[in-house]
Amino acid sequence: MIVCVFACPVLKIKNFEMQTFWFAPTLGAIILLIFGLVDGNVVFSSMIENSSVNPLEILVLFISMVFLSVVLDEVGFFKYLATLAVKKAKNSQLAMFIILFFMVSILTIFTSNDIIVITFTPFIIFFCKNTKISPIPYLVAEFVAANTWSMLLIIGNPTNIYLATSFNIDFFTYIKYMFIPTIFAGITSLLIMLLIFKNKLKQKLDSNISSDHILDKNIFIISLILLIICIVLLAISSFINLSMWIISLTSAGILLIFLVIYCIFNKDKRYILKESIFRLPFNLIPLLLSMFVIVLTLHQYDITTYIFNLLNTSQPILTFGLSSFVFANLTNNIPMSILYVDIVKNFTNISPQAIYSSIISSNIAAYFTPIGALAGIMWMSILRKNDVEFSFLKFSIYGSIIAIPTLLVSLGGLYISFLF
User: How many helices (H) and strands (E) does the chain have?
Assistant: First the structure.
């Protein structure tokens, strides 16, 4: 998978482009099934059973939430907010940096880190090129903010969804334990970046930029209302006894039906529906399902039990937090999350400390190396397309300076959370 990411990240066939990161895991899963190294019946029953670790339900939850966010992006909501931020900063790069950091942070909490990265990165590059300033401080701030504040809610990252829902952690219980670590991580990462970029941010900023506007107010209002309702229902899902994937799927389904009907009568808006569907992370489906098969195989041969025995100490926050951080940067945070769900299940009484520390690492690992998360792979791809020089080494240097202290501080915050 890593070779695919760096040697041939995108496969082009005429006008069609396809990302390749999921090829190797999918091939691995197919080989395991063909040679009978994993029980096909077990795999099939795991895919259809009504359980907290059903990968299909988790995929439905994430993709549905992404759809709600993508439609908002297609009508220009996020770009509109970005231009407001630029105008608010006036001529101060420091003000622009801080406003951008908090704007990305807030949007990430209620949408998805992947969507925010995909949306804001091209805007930042365009803005910096036109104002002749270095885009690096703002790109790093955006990426770090998106992958730090995504920890706060279950819906912020697919790894949060997988790890939390696999152990039936409800919306408010999740926030109870993740609030302090997220605040600690957010403040720490911001302070470190301000120290790193303080000289570059002293230069004045020419903030003359044309105002963006909402492209269709009707679609904007409906999609925003549905997103808000969806988040509220997700928060009380355990009280109303509704699965989160059903809530998100229903919300996305209502929006899809509305868009189809609306576009029939407004043909010039069909591109919004088309682009929203086209931008959904369908590549995540083969990656998640194939890694699920691979982890089932590891479980069948007691490999996950062996790893659990290595990590089973009196300090699960430290052992699971650090090991999952390393593993995410060797394989990507989604395979890591699937594996660690199976590892944690070896506890006689499931350790919430091990779960939450793994969630923290799955988010912060994203900005240690580009391999750490799909967001990093997509982010580097956008930079290459726009001729922004930012190498793997440079990413890792910034990443090590920011990620390691942020990880340790947030794990410390998790210790505090479990004292109450």
Answer: 21, 2
3-state secondary structure of 236: coil
CA distance 288 to 57: 12
In angstroms, rounded to a whole number, what is the distance separating the alpha carbons of residues 365 and 158? 14
Residues near 289 by Cβ (< 8 Å), separated by ≥ 6? 29, 47, 55, 59
The Cα 32–Cα 40 span in angstroms is: 9
**Long-range CB contact pairs, 42-45, < 8 A, 24+:** 42/296, 42/300, 43/292, 43/293, 43/296
Q: Is 165 helix (H, G, I), strand (E, B) or coil?
A: helix
pLDDT at residue 365 greater than cutoff 90: yes
CB-based contact 411:321 (threshold 8 Å): yes
Separation of first and last alpha carbons in the chain: 41
Residue with tokens 């949306």: 119
Nearest 5 degrees, angle CA 37-CA 39-CA 42?
150
CB 376 within 8 A of CB 369: yes
Strand partners, 92: 204
Instruction: Provide the pLDDT for residue 20.
Output: 85
What's the one-letter identity of residue 114?
Answer: D
Q: Quote the distance between the C-alpha of residue 283 and its chain's center.
A: 14
Burial call 284-322: b when 16+ CB within 10 Å, e when fewer: bbbbbbbbbbbbbbbbeeeebeebbeebbeeebbbbbbb
Per-residue pLDDT of 80-103, as tens digits, reads 888 777 777 777 889 889 999 999
The per-residue pLDDT for range 20-30, each reduced to its tens digit, is 888 999 999 99
Q: Which two tokens stand for residue 96?
A: 């622009």
Q: Is 419 helix (H, G, I), strand (E, B) or coil?
A: coil
The overall longest dimension of the chain from CA atoms, in Å, is 64
> Is residue 411 within 8 Å of residue 317, measured between CB atoms?
yes
Taking the C-alpha atoms of residue 96 and residue 137, their distance in angstroms, rounded to an integer, is: 11
Residues 240, 218, 234, CA angle at the centre, nearest 5°?
A: 15
The token pair that represents 13 in the structure block: 């066939």
Residue 263 is encoded by which pair of tokens?
A: 């576009």
Instruction: Look at residues 40, 56, 24 and name the one whose alpha carbon lies nearest to residue 287.
Output: 24
